[in-house]
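So, could you explain this one?
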Amino acid sequence: MVGASGSIPDWNTLLASRPQGAVRGRLAPSPTGELHLGNAQSALGAWLSVRHRGGSLVLRIEDLDKDRVLPGGAQRCARDLEWLGLDWDEDDTLTGPCAPYQQTLRQDLYTSALIELSRRGRLFPCALSRQDLRQLASAPHAGEPGEPGGGDRRYPPHLRPDPLPAPGWFHGEFSGECNLRFLCEDRDDTWQDLLHGEQRDNAGRRCGDFVLRRRDGVFSYQLAAVVDDALMGITDVVRGSDLLDSCSRQLQLWEALGATPPVFAHLPLLRAGHGAKLSKRESDLELATLRRAGVRPATVLGWLGWSLGLLPAPRPIGAHDLLDVFDWSRITTEDRVVPPDLTTALAGQ
């Protein structure tokens, strides 16, 4: 799918060649740390949603931020998912129509999308740094008169270049002097979430024009996720509820790129005792730590199945057996606090 050396593939040609007509989901771990129970809960939900309907799954490695990627992290993510009993149909070691499945090897595809966004008048360069934006936001008269949020916007319309560059100005060359931003429309986007029902958000008012490529060369999560989901033919995006506020931005990107968005479902989060969502700093809840403590995969899956609301109480169960009880109407929307002694409790089962 990636163009020949030195060439950027045409976006519309790429889009026309994507897989179509089948249920497709993705497991998309980031190898910036070890997978923990929270990651496992999201992966399990994505796997159940697609396998329950006889669909296929891809394993995509989201390694955009190369400076934070751990050596061997991608392989450990795959090993942890396999240990749980979650399988997939496509990755960089298996045959598949959407290779490569590693984001650092898909840079030409993201550049192709930027060219298309430029052609449609939705891309512009921005030389302002984060510090510049903070100073502008704190200025006494930041924001335009009568503008909801005023200077609270992360990048309001009055900061756009005047005039904006002509459509088609970007051809794939990067200067390293500017970020590239998406021109985000001030509009209400609505969508149906499989778990939370009808949702409404206005990304233009809430966050304004957002970065798609940093001046240091790193593409944004928002762009890469949409491009990869579009070109991989993903129909079901199941992820944690901390990403619910990405939907409005991503829906505008989907539309601007001429692609049909997937169905979204945002699962509840697992939280530590202090209330914050589990992070990769919670080493005692990493799957590798649980495995070393002698915890069985079926025990982890049973606890996660109960946490999601599929089981009345935790009990050992295999991933394929959870398919028999999976139904979106059973999934809870409530986050769950992980007890501090969970590792010991699971190891004793």
Remarks:
- The chain has a mean pLDDT of 91.
- The chain has two domains: 1-19+97-225, 20-95+268-349.
- Residues 1-19+97-225 form a domain with the Glutamyl-tRNA Synthetase; domain 3 fold (CATH 3.90.800.10).
